[in-house]
Amino acid sequence: MRAPLTSPPTPTGGEPIVQTSGGVTIYLHDETLWREFAKYGTEMIINRGGRYVHGINSY
Q1: Separation of alpha carbons 1 and 52, rounded Å
Q2: What is the pLDDT of residue 17?
Q3: Number of H helices and number of E strands within the chain?
Q4: pTM for this structure?
Q5: How confident is the model over 7-50, as pLDDT tens digits?
Q6: Burial bucket for residue 6 (CB in 10 Å: 0-12, 13-18, 19+)
Q7: Phi and psi at residue 36, in whole multiples of 5°?
Q8: According to the model, what pLDDT value does residue 22 have?
Q9: CB of 22 closer than 8 Å to CB of 31
Q10: Of the candidates 7, 10, 31, the residue with the CA atom closest to the CA atom of residue 21
Q11: What is the helix (H) or strand (E) element at residue 36, kind and residue range?
Q12: Hey, how many other C-beta atoms are within 10 angstroms of the C-beta on 45?
């Protein structure tokens, strides 16, 4: 069973949102851009080359 994820308070000033669950930490950079995507229900950009998931995974 997965641990429930809760949204931390939204920071101001462009700081990344940080969330930890089950020993995994997730950083959301450019929160304003992601909120714009959320208005349309997607975070994917579809272009001539195919589909591109916006964002960078860094480990």
Answers
A1: 30
A2: 74
A3: 1, 4
A4: 0.32
A5: 555 444 456 678 888 888 888 777 788 778 778 776 566 666 65
A6: exposed
A7: -65, -45
A8: 87
A9: no
A10: 7
A11: helix 31-40
A12: 11
- From residue 22, alpha-carbon distances to 2, 11, 28, 42, 45 in Å are 8, 22, 17, 26, 30
31 or 6, which is more confident: 31
Any idea how long the chain is?
A: 59
Q: Is residue 57 helix, strand or coil?
A: coil
Please compute the mean of the pLDDT values over residues 49-58 and round it to a whole number: 61
Tokens 């809760």: give the residue: 6
Counting beta carbons within 10 angstroms of the beta carbon of residue 32, is it exposed (0 to 12), middle (13 to 18) or buried (19 or more)?
A: exposed
